[in-house]
UniProtKB/TrEMBL annotation:
Residues 169-315 form the Cytidyltransferase-like domain. GO terms for biological process: coenzyme A biosynthetic process. GO terms for molecular function: dephospho-CoA kinase activity. PANTHER family: BIFUNCTIONAL COENZYME A SYNTHASE-RELATED (PTHR10695:SF46), DEPHOSPHO-COA KINASE-RELATED (PTHR10695). This is 10923_t:CDS:1.
Length: 323
């Protein structure tokens, strides 16, 4: 099987620390995207992720930067190669709650990795053999850029780190793309028990551009639910339609935090005002940005050119239909 014919791929990346990603990993992602046609899972192993899962808010910025780097690097290459609908998912080992190599439904064609990952990929196949699953072809990439050196990480957290039992997030989630996946992953990252995701109902989207190419509410809910269960098992997920800007946030007093994008931060202020009127606890607001100010994955101009939006993807659907 030639590299260009792989359908469903896994790229193994091992990081010494949360902040040790570099051009070596960008090159690996580029090669993996170039040789994948349907789906690519970027499987990340990092001891810091395992440690900080119990102190999630202490490394919010670092996790955000890492997700930005991985998703934006992959999306940029896929768009450059006209693979706008290549399914790219970033999964954190151990935090996800299962062994990625043993998932039968994924139907992997190949395990990708650098030379340093070869023994790990062989371990994946050994685990599959024990589970009576067929071995997967291993393809090792030769990279021009060196892998990062091993580094020790220092535990740095407050005496009383915040852990939220229930966290909410909301959005349209049409044609689930990298921006949505970053938002959902960061929400799951700070959630300890229950994640409530409000998906905007069709009745609120009549003014959306290229509305006729928008996925129906049931499809969007199903895709969000599938993605959440892919990135992390063990949480309780409630993915529900919402008919206004508030959704369950003003009817459920047990929600403790809300994750929003920079563009929708004004809505979070309205939510907290309404919760105050109802004598509910004020939600702690976590704001994400596709580009982090501390460690940008792309320059501002490059991000605009990337057109990371559902509107752009709906426009592609329209153009492909008219050809």
């Amino acid at each position: 099987m030639s590299k260009s014919s792989y359908k469903n791929s896994l790229l193994q990346i091992t990081l010494p620390t949360l902040t040790s990603f570099n051009e070596h990993h960008r090159e690996l992602i580029k090669l993996a995207v170039n040789h994948s046609s349907i789906s690519l899972i970027i499987h990340v192993s990092c001891q810091e992720i395992e440690f900080y899962k119990n102190y999630p808010t202490e490394c919010w910025t670092e996790i955000s930067d890492l997700l930005n780097f991985l998703y934006i690097s992959g999306t940029k290459v896929s768009y450059e190669n006209s693979k706008h609908f290549l399914e790219i998912d970033v999964i954190f080992e151990k935090w996800n709650g299962y062994n990625i190599e043993l998932v039968k439904e994924t139907n992997f064609d190949v395990f990708f990795g650098s030379k340093a990952e070869q023994s790990r990929l062989q371990e994946f196949n050994s685990n599959r053999k024990k589970a009576s699953l067929p071995e997967i072809h291993i393809d090792i990439f030769d990279t021009k850029t060196p892998s990062p050196n091993n580094q020790d990480f220092k535990h740095n957290f407050n005496e009383n780190p915040k852990i939220f039992q229930t966290v909410a997030v909301g959005g349209t989630f049409d044609h689930l793309h990298a921006g949505h996946k970053i938002l959902l992953t960061l929400t799951a990252w700070i959630t300890n028990k229950r994640l409530i995701c409000g998906v905007t109902d069709d009745c609120m989207l009549k003014s959306k551009k290229f509305k006729e190419y928008m996925e129906p509410i049931d499809t969007r809910i199903a895709k969000v639910t599938k993605f959440l269960n892919t990135i992390r098992q063990g949480l309780s997920y409630e993915v529900v339609p919402i008919y206004d800007v508030y959704g369950p946030t003003v009817t459920d007093p047990d929600i403790h935090a809300l994750v929003v994008s920079r563009e929708t931060i004004s809505g979070s202020e309205l939510i907290n005002e309404e919760r105050q009127k109802r004598s509910f606890g004020i939600l702690e607001i976590f704001v994400i940005e596709v580009i982090s100010s501390t460690n940008p994955s792309l320059k501002e101009a490059e991000l605009k050119e990337l057109k990371l939006s559902s509107t752009y993807l709906r426009e592609l659907c329209k153009n492909s239909e008219t050809k």
